[in-house]
Design brief:
Largest sheet of chain B: 10 strands, mixed
Strand content of chain B: 5-15%
CATH superfamily of the largest domain in chain A: Immunoglobulins
Order of helices and strands of chain A: HHEEHEEEEEEHHH
Helix content of chain A: 25-40%
CATH topology of the largest domain in chain A: Immunoglobulin-like
Shape of chain B: globular
Oligomer: heterodimer
Distance between the termini of chain B: 39 Å
Strand content of chain A: 15-25%
Radius of gyration of chain A: 25 Å
Number of strands of chain B: 10
Number of domains of chain A: 3
Radius of gyration of chain B: 24 Å
Structural class of chain B: alpha/beta
CATH superfamily of the largest domain in chain B: Glycoside hydrolase 38, N terminal domain
Largest interface: A-B, 94 and 126 residues
Distance between the termini of chain A: 42 Å
CATH architecture of the largest domain in chain A: Sandwich
Largest sheet of chain A: 5 strands, antiparallel
Shape of chain A: flat
Chain lengths: 245, 538
């Protein structure tokens, strides 16, 4: 969500945005009231990404298509003959894992009709869950696993990855009341790497020159760190270490 | 590379727009993205660079021209529409001159500056480039001032396709192929879309003989290996491709909305435009009424709060440009002095931006860049060089695998996998799997089936563009973006369903080919996992 510069917009631009975001009677509100309504709206939208560092993120700003206009929704892009709507999901049993960041992955899945039929043949209703496997990055040996219960109609989930420097995969599983457990599908494997400095914080406090060389390009003139949780974690750990010392 | 210089700036500008072309409509609002970019960034940028060359100012910069942008720039339909756009701008400029002379004479110099730019654009576009501005970029490359590089075929955010090796390979191979078609030489550099990197991606670039790419600022610091020279020198990846990490500190002097130069109150406000401010009956012929009001490019206010709306003053803004150029060089010098004894070579500061920042978003951005390059040429403190120059001068580099990273919010893939867009990957990934299936089941087809399968490949490649999920994330133009993304997947499905019945939908094919003129030489066999071109991926 781009937060437009509300203060700089004209009344007609404000009215345009208000209409787009469904503010009732936007064209009848006084300019100041309209600004206030939009500020409230964007505060609501902005909670997820309203950190100060997000303002520094280039992908969030200054793109040619960050305009305040677009073709109305009923303005159709020309459809070609024979084009059909897409299904919400596909007739297969599969699960996929996407790495969002070192702490989160996105899993999406579908259960094919054959598997659904097989499951429905049992007199009991199955419960479903995701089993997350965390493995050693080098030898692939299992380090830990945990389960996430899901509803029968869920088709995707954001999964927390508890440790860096591990590989992960997920199985889509079911269980009956009699404790019979089965695997429906297993995902691809994703890997998160452990940054060198996560285990070598001490090196950064030992030598100020080294610290400057390695990290001065990650901080703005105003002292804001690059928008990266892992970098923030390294700096936080360093600060704690310094305070303890 | 001038070794007398104490440091180097590696300026990399990424000129990219998603493929937007709707000949089925007489005018299409989202095509204005291209027209605004040509008139406010690309043509003025070319003028600025040519003038620097004419004045014998030494500089070398890197410009990435995306395959989709290049295709649109040489398309006769879009060229014709841009011509109309320029003519309308010229007409509006004349009207505005008359209007402000009567109503707000203090605005006359600003209007005159817009009118002058429109006239220069007209002259350059028709007389200098004969409507093909790519020739302007080629010319600057031939004179050694610009290094032209490419980026992924449709600017896909590649980490989200790491499981689909044929797709990543296709994005790289097709990009290089398109660059060769346009510029008759292989690119040495590759702009990673959104600075999106994952370990192993460099292998695809090496296969296409790419020498370097750029990275997000944190990519080296978060590596499993300690980066010995920080971000001030490139590293060499295991595949042998050099990687240059952005300097976040210097970049944000220019880029940041909070502390960056463009936010100075004397600069021109981007959002205030007569397309919204003037009465409908006056502005109607120049916007997209009845569909929507839109920007016209005529903007008269300085950046300002709602209580203090001031008209834009060119004089004040130009004074500030000079101050900011000096300040930037001062920051560079200060940094270089501090690094002097910490490095075994002069620091290389990688500054990577979307090209459209300069001129389009930051109205004075090109004036600032011009001033910085000229001032830098007068001292030994810093020079403008390309990554290729640097590699040639300092081939030794630390071997290191950068970390998974991007320049997006949070530094990873969250922008492209948020609640607004993540549902798309189920469909795009499925289309990629099915494309691989088709390529294996129907290899080396001829004639109509070959065209049908090539169009399928074109559709999946177009569906991978990072622009659509980015726009969906931002909520601006999101319905158009969503329609575009899913339409490409739906179109792919037409081929898949027909090929499963061993049939071709000729009517669909002819229309689709006519609409999607991008990648005319695409070969769907690139999605065949069994083919030689994909064998290295295991």
């Amino acid at each position: 969500m781009i937060i437009p510069n509300i203060e700089a917009l004209s009344i007609s631009e404000l009215q345009f945005i208000a209409k787009r975001y469904g503010i009732e009677n936007g064209d009848q509100l006084a300019e100041d009231d309209l600004r206030e309504a939009l500020h409230e709206l964007f505060e609501e939208f902005g909670t997820e990404y309203s950190t100060l560092s997000a303002l520094y993120s280039p992908s969030n700003q200054k793109r040619y298509f960050n305009q305040i206009y677009e073709s109305p929704e009923d303005f159709q892009v020309g459809s070609l003959p024979g084009v059909q709507e897409l299904p919400p999901f596909y007739s297969e049993t599969a699960i996929h894992l996407l790495l969002k960041d070192p702490s989160w992955a996105h899993a999406y899945w579908s259960i094919g009709p054959n598997d659904f039929k097989k499951l429905s043949e049992n007199s009991q209703d199955p419960s479903f869950f995701l089993r997350v496997f965390m493995c050693d990055l080098v030898d692939g040996n299992l380090v830990d696993s945990f389960d996430i219960p899901i509803a029968a109609d869920d088709i995707s989930w954001n999964v927390n990855l508890p440790e860096h420097g591990r590989s992960f995969y997920i199985s889509l599983m079911y269980q009956y009341d009699d404790e019979e457990v089965g695997v429906l599908a297993t995902s691809n494997t994703i890997a998160t790497r452990k940054p060198y400095f996560q285990d070598h914080i001490g090196e950064l406090e030992e030598n100020e020159d080294d610290f400057y060389l390695l990290f001065s390009s990650l901080v703005t003139k105003g002292g804001v760190l690059v928008d990266s949780r892992a970098i923030h974690e390294i700096f936080t750990a360093l600060e704690i270490k310094r305070e303890l010392a | 590379m001038n070794k007398k210089k104490k440091s180097s700036i590696g300026l990399i500008l990424n000129a990219h727009l998603p493929f937007v072309r709707h000949p089925e409509y007489p005018r299409f609002l989202e095509e204005d993205w291209l027209f605004e970019s040509i008139s406010e960034t690309y043509l003025p940028l070319l003028r600025m660079l040519r003038k620097l060359r004419e004045d014998e100012v030494p500089f070398r910069i890197t410009i990435s021209l995306s395959p989709t942008l290049c295709t649109m720039l040489i398309d006769p339909i879009l060229q014709g529409r841009f011509t109309n756009y320029l003519r309308m701008q010229e007409e509006l400029g004349k009207m505005e001159l008359n209007r402000v002379t009567q109503e707000s004479p203090e605005l006359k110099p600003v209007v005159e500056s817009y009118v002058a730019r429109i006239r220069e654009n007209l002259s350059d576009y028709f007389d200098e480039y004969q409507c093909n501005i790519l020739s302007g970029f080629s010319d600057l490359e031939e004179s050694g001032n610009v290094e032209l590089i490419t980026t992924a075929a449709t600017h896909a955010f590649l980490p989200l396709y790491s499981e689909y090796s044929t797709a990543v390979n296709a994005q790289v191979e097709l990009a290089v192929q398109t660059h060769v078609n346009f510029f008759k030489k292989r690119p040495k550099g590759f702009w990673l879309p959104e600075c999106g990197y994952y370990p192993g991606l460099d292998e695809y670039l090496r296969k296409e003989n790419i020498s370097f790419f750029q990275l997000g600022a944190q990519a080296l610091s978060l590596s499993e290996t300690r980066p010995e020279r920080g971000n001030y020198a490139p590293v060499i990846t295991p595949s042998g491709v050099y990687a240059f990490a952005r300097d976040y500190h210097l970049t944000n002097l220019i880029w940041s909305n909070v502390e960056g130069y463009p936010s100075d109150p004397v600069y021109r406000e981007f959002y205030r435009d007569i397309g919204y401010d003037l009465p409908m009956e006056y502005i109607k012929p120049y916007i997209h009424e009845p569909q929507a009001r839109a920007f016209t490019g005529f903007k008269y206010y300085a950046i300002t709060g709602s209580q203090d709306k001031r008209f834009y003053s060119i004089e004040k803004a130009q004074k500030k440009v000079r101050e900011h150029a000096s300040n930037f060089l001062y920051e560079v010098k200060r940094k270089t002095d501090r690094l002097k004894d910490l490095l075994d070579r002069p620091p290389f500061y990688t500054l990577a931006f979307d090209a459209e920042l300069f001129g389009h978003w930051w109205h004075e951005g090109l004036d600032w860049l011009d001033t910085v390059i000229r001032k830098a040429a007068e001292t030994d403190d810093v020079g403008f060089n390309t990554p290729k120059d640097y590699i040639a001068t300092y081939p030794e580099a630390q071997e290191l695998t950068p970390a998974f990273s991007s320049w997006g919010e949070g530094g990873y893939a969250n922008v492209w996998t948020d609640g607004q867009n993540v549902h798309a990957y189920r469909h795009v990934h499925k289309a990629l799997e099915r494309m691989e299936e088709l390529a294996v089941r129907f290899p080396h087809q001829n004639s109509l089936k070959q065209r049908f399968l090539n169009q399928a490949a074109r559709e999946v490649i177009l569906s991978m563009a990072s622009d659509w999920p980015f726009i969906m994330h931002n909520g601006t133009s999101s319905s158009y973006a969503s329609r575009r993304l899913f339409d490409h997947v739906k179109n792919f499905s037409v081929v898949y369903e027909h090929m499963c019945k061993n049939a071709v939908n000729t009517e669909w094919l002819v229309k689709a080919e006519k609409r999607d003129i991008v990648f005319p030489d695409i070969d769907y066999n690139m999605f065949n996992k069994d083919s030689d071109r994909n064998r290295y991926n295991g």
